[in-house]
Specification:
single chain, 345 residues, mainly alpha, ABC transporter involved in vitamin B12 uptake, BtuC, two-stranded antiparallel sheet
């Protein structure tokens, strides 16, 4: 073995480094390009503390918040899909298949349609709509509740990968049907917000959305070193996993809880962006080969890159009437999935 071979970086590390460079490039492109044409030197000035008031508003208050929110949501969706596909041993598992997205959808629909009565200290009741700032929390609560119901049902039936998936499909279908029925049959002046949220969008996302997502992303990332070894074993049948000394039910439950938390928080903040939780883990495994831990790291990076680039593409193609990111990921995800199916043995 030569000294050159000893110092040559592993293929997995080269892939991670390449994708890290791509993520930086996509972040820079998302900051520089947009509907408003801002010269590169003005962008640089803003990022270094200067620049005009208009340029600072566009970059610091409009573009950067939606970019950071998209990056965090992409990481959450990608990791949630990776965990679900691993523990259920189902290559089609993602937050929507497991009912988490549908639970968040119903919760957001109810939140936007319902009102509450308050008593302002007078003899008359005033009808007040719930503040729109509460929407991400409402979506996450619905997603987590749906995930909890699915887990409890599967637990009572005897926890297994196939039963988790079947419960998720059944509960998700019911929740989606109820949400669509409410939207179709109950008019509201907030119906446009519902439709925009259902399409998956980063439009008008602010720093509050990024701050909302950040703790859940950090918790999910901090949990990875704890669950990575059990996650490798959870890809096997329960009997095989237990033969290696794995506390199968406990580790399965932890991984499922983390994936539901990641998915529900992302759906609550940006809506059910389709295909990210499904495609990103497959693309990561395709690039990493059999290196499980490398594919997990690639999932994190690719989740951020895919959402950032798709959002940028939607902004550039739609201009003032931007194309929702959920539409872009769906259009781009189908051919990418077909490509991966052809290349995967």
């Amino acid at each position: 073995m030569t000294s050159a071979m000893l110092h040559r970086p592993a293929p997995g590390m080269r892939m991670i480094a390449s994708l890290a460079i791509l993520s930086i490039a996509s972040l820079a492109a998302a900051i520089v390009f947009g509907v408003a044409d801002i010269p590169l030197h003005d962008v640089t000035s803003v990022l270094t503390g200067g620049g005009s008031a208009e340029a600072r508003t566009i970059i610091l208050d409009i573009r950067l918040p939606r970019i950071v929110t998209g990056i965090l949501a992409g990481i959450n969706f990608g990791l949630a899909g990776y965990l679900l596909q691993s523990i259920t041993r189902n290559p089609l598992a993602d937050p929507s298949l497991m009912g988490v997205s549908q639970g968040a959808t119903l919760s957001v629909t109810l939140f936007l349609l319902l009102t509450v009565y308050v008593h302002p200290g007078t003899n008359t009741n005033t009808l007040v709509q719930l503040p729109i700032e509460w929407l991400p929390a409402a979506g996450m609560a619905g997603g987590m509740l749906a995930g909890g119901v699915i887990y409890l049902l599967a637990f009572r039936l005897g926890l297994s990968a196939i039963r988790i998936t079947l419960c998720g499909v059944a509960i998700g279908a019911v929740l989606h049907a109820v949400a669509v029925g409410l939207i179709a049959g109950w008019g509201s002046e907030r119906i446009e917000i519902i439709l925009e949220w259902l399409s998956g969008s980063l439009y008008a996302r602010t720093w509050s959305h990024a701050i909302f997502l950040l703790p859940f992303t950090i918790i999910g990332l901090l949990m990875l070193p704890v669950i990575v070894r059990p996650l490798e074993l959870l890809q096997f049948d329960a009997v095989v996993a237990r033969s290696f000394g794995l506390a199968y039910r406990r580790q399965f439950s932890i991984a499922l809880m983390v994936s539901c938390m990641l998915a529900a928080s992302a759906v609550g903040a940006v809506g059910p962006i389709v295909f990210v939780g499904l495609i990103v883990p497959h693309l990561a495994r395709f690039l990493a080969g059999r290196e499980f831990r490398v594919s997990l790291v690639l999932t994190i990076v690719l989740g951020a890159v895919v959402v950032t680039l798709c959002d940028l593409l939607g902004r550039l193609l739609g201009q003032a009437e931007e194309i929702p990111i959920g539409v872009v990921t769906a259009v781009c995800g189908v051919p990418l999935m077909l490509f991966l199916l052809r290349k995967t043995p």
